[in-house]
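Q: Sequence in, structure out?
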Amino acid sequence: MFDSSKSDEIDVPVTFRTLLVELAHRVGDHHIPVNTGANDIHEFVGVDAVHHELVNQIVRQIYKANRCGHLDAEVSHKPTFAVLGRIRGQLSQCRQSDIDQVNLLDALGWAVREIFANHELIPNTVTDEPLESRASIHQINPGYTP
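A: Exactly. Output:
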């Protein structure tokens, strides 16, 4: 049985290759066509991605932000999320941005979170507890002052 209080002792690294293969599986190979046999970043993602330029930008920036020297280098959630957030911010400010590109970035963000959570590398803050058991609820009446 998994003891969540010891989650900081579990070390299951996520490599760049693993991250991209899992992302392709979660968001679709048509978005991230991965060449699993590649040994170089330039050969790793196919040219037939639906949003090729965007995906290429995301992949290269995640690689660079995590200071990867090879495809099997370990990656971390913080620089990976920083890249996705930065690119999404740029897209949201661009008048010519495509809603499908924004949706892809959102899907990638959720997928990255799931991947790192499954590897126990980020805390799982999602719970099935009912809201009432996690929060204090106060009835507000006219004239009420806490």
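The chain has one domain: 9-126.
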